[in-house]
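Sample entry as discussed:
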Amino acid sequence: MLRISQLKLPVVHTEAQLEQKLLKTLKAGKGEVKRYYIRKRSLDARKKPELYYVYSVDFEAKHEERILRQLKGKVQRISERSYSVPEHGAEHLTSRPVVVGSGPAGLFCAYLLAREGYHPLVVERGAPVRERKQDVDRFWENGILDPDSNVQFGEGGAGTFSDGKLNTLVKDPAGRNRFVLETFVRFGAPEDILWEQKPHIGTDILMDVVESMRKEINESGGEFLFHSQVTDIIPEEKTLIINGTEKIRTDAAVLAIGHSARDTFQMLCDRGLQMEAKSFAVGVRVEHLQSLIDENTYGRKERGKLPAASYKLTEKLENGRGVYTFCMCPGGYVVNASSEPGHLAVNGMSYHGRAGENANSAVIVTVTPEDYGQEHPLSGVQFQRKLEKKAWEAGRGNVPVQRFEDFCKNRTTAELGRIKPSIKGHYSLANVREIFPEELAGSLQQGISQMNRKIHGFADPDVLLSGVESRTSSPVRIPRDGEFRGSIPWIYPCGEGAGYAGGITSAAMDGLKSAEAIIKKYEAGGCYCSQNFNV
């Protein structure tokens, strides 16, 4: 297999024109290339408004040695390592593995275990994804929160009500990233996620994908228990307590509980599972007109057939803190992502079409254990809760919204300007600045102001800020050994909640790693479907 890069075409072109470009560059006839497929596509906007797509293409040809000689330095031979599952171990499982949580980490862990014959049991505190969507829609409509079925909890995890972004910076020599993307495509995601530079699925499609994966896991011998929260554990008996009464025994419990399972963190800490506070980030959601972002990116007022543009910005401040954008949602919505009564958190979401009027992104500043105290592993959780309580009070239970000019002047917004909120859930005009300690508020103000140098209009007075963006990542890390086990050896901490991932793809990859650890240790094929339960 060979790879050629830097095939440049106008943004409006056909598949036939791409093939013609490939053949012309290779100086090859139509029959000489046996097959080809797109490996990567990115946008070149350096000479905007003149825009190009740039392709990397993998192909097989009849005369590969000739092509390599003639195009030395432009064409490379590639030998990619495909994802492979490790050989099964020899230890006997007396009961099937249990996966706690059905976000991307838990879902991919269960998928691989089921595929390899381990019949995993998935326990999820929230609802199946269709029922969960009804719970979330109802919350956005009437403000009545279900603490166990919301934007944070339920089948698919927190990423289900997000933009569904699939890019990751995790190094991946084992091919897990490609396996994750190909699995998403197999279960209904658009094929272009395999090659787009910034792949995304969108909330609307992601729900279908999650549901299809669950059905496949069930057909392969797995099982799901919804509305089933792990409320306690008995470490010496390798036992999980579900909903306060039901006991489930297991030799291997994968904890893919997500970054918002604060009650579960507390219980695990009380039961002696080692964990530690870690750095995370907090901030606000900023809303701009999508047309502003498009014009800045493409150099034209009308984007035509181009997708809604995105951005990624970072700033280093004089006080030493970093301010950066996170989870940018083109043509999306700010969402009320709360999971605890009397507390309010926001996130961003896009549908696949990204057709909304506004763009939104988190603008966040890093906080460390030095900022919120290190006296307890869950000190970061308490810091998050403090901010979320202030946000709930600022908006009187609704999402608090403030114009950037008012944020800078520390005054409550009285009326909106040119930009109107695109928010799922009710909002109230408020003083968002008062949610934060002044050092963090000042850092956010300075960071947004400096970002205006990169995107003119980013710090416009009418830009909208809403808060609080507090669930960017887990505030704790659960240490694990070389076999992916925690300090309680039958527990496998996994994914974003355990501090080992930061997004859908990296969480899914970490779920695969935990499944691999179990596969390496234990043999498959046991009949233990009825051996987990003791009421």
